Amino acid sequence: MPPYLNLRRQSCHRYQLTVIDILVDYIRFRCETVTSRQPSPTPGVLLQECNRIVSHLFVIFDGSVELVTLTLLRTTPEQPGYTVLLYPVFEAILTGEAARGDEGTVGGIPSYVRMLLCFKRWRSLVTGRADKAVIDARAGQLLPARCPTVQAASDVPLLRLLPPVPPAQRANETRYLLANDLFTLDQCTAQFFRHHRRASAAAAAADERQLSSISRPAPPTMATRLVSA
Fold it and tell me: For 206-218, what is each residue's pLDDT tens digit?
């Protein structure tokens, strides 16, 4: 990615986080609107609403799986009835082509933790063992069997969000973390977003420093003064 595009992307983080909050409210509004209809919405109506929400998310975020899944992670069912719309939304995004493509590839700890929490959120929408098994199988197709290794110092706080896994379960760490309620999902998600906001703020500050160094011309040296004279 050219440096100027990377700078532009990073400088938009704060704006994107604000948009995420707005879209979470929009999804809740659609859930309330759909589930309050009488008679109850048909499967066709639910599918239409699901496709509309998913399409809006990918259009607004220009196809970014990271930002779309961050929005999912912030979306909680405020009413039990919301599940009838939220479940297909989670399914469409987490099993769709974009999540399986290069942009959605889980290559590091930040993306691994984000996607793991998304699957945990999706899993929380159902109570049946068979339904949970289906979600676990979907997660197994996208996530690695084990958490990736630490690549940067900023990975460590995210790694600490995950509970320790017994030695006998380390080969299937992801499945173990999904299948067992080892942490409070809402609390862990809140901590994840606090870290994400801090990382975004640090990136924005680094952008400003880099832009300042680019835009500010270097002071002339003695050699350049002699040449110009």
Answer: 656 665 665 555 5
Place of tokens 């992307």: 9
Dihedral sign computed on CA atoms, order 119, 123, 129, 131? negative
- Could you tell me if 139 and 179 are in contact, meaning their C-beta atoms sit under 8 angstroms apart? no
- The pTM assigned to this predicted structure is 0.82
Give residue for tokens 């997660």: 139
For the record, the structure tokens of 220 come out as 């002339």
Three-class secondary structure of residue 43 per DSSP: helix
Other residues' Cβ atoms within 10 Å of the Cβ of residue 177? 22
Rounded mean pLDDT of the chain? 85
Domain boundaries, the chain: 3-146+172-198
The string of pLDDT tens digits covering residues 11-40 is 677 788 899 999 999 999 999 999 999 899
Cα distance between residue 125 and residue 77, in whole Å: 8
Q: Which residues contact 206 (CB under 8 A, 6 or more apart)?
A: 10
List, as one string, the DSSP characters of 68-115: HHHHHHH---SSGGGHHHHHHHHHHHHSSHHHHSSTT---SHHHHHHH
Taking every pair of C-alpha atoms in the chain, what is the biggest distance, in angstroms? 86
